[in-house]
Amino acid sequence: MTSIKPISLYDTPSIDEVRAAARFDPQVIRSLHSKLLRRFDPDDVALVGFPLGDQLRLHALEFYRRYDSAVDGATKLLLRTSAGMLIESVILRVESGRSTLCVSSQIGCAAACEFCASGKMGIARDLSADEIVDQVLQAGQLLVTEGRQLRNIVFMGMGEPFHNEENLFAALELLIAPEFFNHSPGKVLVSTVGVTDGMLRCAARFPAVNLALSLHSVRQRVRERLIPLAKKYPLDDLHRTIAEVNQLQATTTVMIEYLMLAGVNDGRADATDLIEWLDGLSVHVNLIPYNPITDAPHFVGSDRPTCRAFAQQLRTAGLKTTVRYSLGNDIAAGCGQLVRQENRMIARQTLVDDG
Ligand code: SAH
Question: Looking at the domain assignment, is residue 259 inside a domain?
Fold first, then answer.
């Protein structure tokens, strides 16, 4: 007997072919998508009454394990690819019940930012669109069992989304399509190190999807030290890009992410330069407390009074400014260290097995 390759849940033409051959009503497929992707029913419940369910692949990733924060209600989900690599997604619960999911777009990251564990991983593989959206499906299914709603989806996990643009865009299509996840594009945010052409294409194709830029400094030399890719995408280009993105996006402002590093970018003069640089752009600033990582012992996060003073200076200048909560620090949910170690072991194991 030949084994049949399972059909992806998102491969509508192939599902439809099977459906037509088996002569069942197209409504059955619509109903399955609705139950799974919009109600986040458990798999077995969603499959009730669905003929040929065994031919479908509902999940591109296998649930591996979860880590729950003991202090703040964050959960890190570890999900495994068919090759055994681990992906992390982080669920951030808030009291209102409307939770945020932080998804990964790659395993590892080629951007190699000085302060980021994912960038130090040394390997990178693009996630497929199915793998990206399965993080949403699995997190949604988990949250529903708690009576919570998945409200925001942020591409702030591992990877540089615009280094995997084609799959990112395919995933965004699935997330916002009414017949699939039907998620509001205004509740999706893509964070980038500053890949200008990708940002422009994203804003043109998905004008309601929010963009965030990891700026971290408006001094070219400092920024290059923190983010090697800053050489390729200099500050002048970034400035022009944000202005163009503002033109393309009628309903949203660009988020400026600014990591607060003691003595590197957190002085009064840094804030003054930032205010000047942002003049005329439609943005809001999100200051990020630094999560220390072992690979970058030379960086220290700014202390609270410094963060507060920096935020106050920006607000006084009329900039909408928030300070990001850092959740899940006790489970390394901020920087992906845990997965990094496990993936290294798996990569080594694979080499041993192969050789
Ligand atoms: N590649 C994308 C998204 C991934 S990281 C980007 O660069 O935007 C999401 C955010 O976390 C970025 O703003 C990134 O600079 C920040 N970040 C990375 N390492 C961090 C750390 N150790 N502590 C705090 N924030 C960090």
Answer: yes
Report whether residue 90 contacts ligand 1, using a CB cutoff of 6 Å.
no
The predicted-structure confidence for 5-50, as pLDDT tens digits, reads as follows 899 999 999 998 988 888 888 898 999 999 999 999 999 999 988 8
Do residues 38 and 78 both lie within one domain?
Answer: no
pLDDT digit string (tens) for 148-192? 999 999 999 999 999 999 999 999 999 999 999 999 999 999 999
- Is residue 247 packed enough to be buried (19+ CB in 10 Å), middle (13-18) or exposed (0-12)? exposed
Find out whether the beta carbon of 233 lies less than 6 Å from any atom of ligand 1: no
- Ligand 1 atom nearest 213 alpha carbon: 8
Domain hosting residue 266, numbered range: 60-351
- Residue 270, helix vs strand vs coil: helix
One of 88, 114, 131, 160 is an active-site residue; which one?
88
* Residue 276 annotated in active site: no
Residues 6+ apart with CB under 8 A from 160: 105, 106, 109, 110, 111, 192, 193, 195
What's the whole-model pTM score?
0.94
Are 168 and 244 in the same domain?
yes
Do 39 and 179 lie in a common domain? no
Residues 6+ apart with CB under 8 A from 166: none
Residue 1 belongs to a domain: no
Is 66 found in the same domain as 52? no
Are residue 243 and residue 276 in the same domain, yes or no? yes
Residue 156 CA to ligand 1 center (angstroms) comes to 7
Q: Is the CB of 290 under 6 A from ligand 1?
A: yes
